Amino acid sequence: MGQLRTLASPSMSNPTLSHTTIISDSLEQCAAIGGDITEAVYERFFALSAAAGPLMAHSDTGMQGRMLAQVLELMLTDEHLGEQGYLRWEVDNHLLAYGVSLPMYDAFFQALQDTVRDTLRHEWRRPQAQAWASRIETLLADINKHSKS
User: Fold this and answer.
1) 6: nearest Cα among 140, 104, 96
2) What is the mean pLDDT of residues 126-149?
3) What mean pLDDT is predicted for residues 6-30?
4) Distance of CA 115 to CAs 14, 58, 89, 99, Å?
5) pLDDT at position 5, please?
6) Residue 85 in 3-state DSSP?
7) In whole angstroms, how large is the CA radius of gyration of the chain?
């Protein structure tokens, strides 16, 4: 399987509590400004990954909202990472059972980050960009690692 690209430099690979706080704060600001971003995230995702649309044709907005909630949880905690983590099970399941490709994970994270950034507009600054890039890099590295096992 191919490697996923990362959105951050290697120097930003270790998420910190401050990154988690920045991401959490940016999500709260985003919700206050834009409300539910689920539809916007999926519109971007399908634009970035044409193959994802047909794979998710069976999903309704409720399912999409639940999936986004799980991704948001991944953005905020390391609890689901690692060899025995929930993310590994999800990746294995999606790659084998649903025909998901590794680049779709990258596209989804990009869609989420871009939606939050565009919603926050002038409130999105370098600390937010760095925190999001670092976290996405960590998640993509975990996904890549497990896709090879």
Assistant:
1) 140
2) 84
3) 68
4) 23, 23, 27, 25
5) 38
6) coil
7) 15
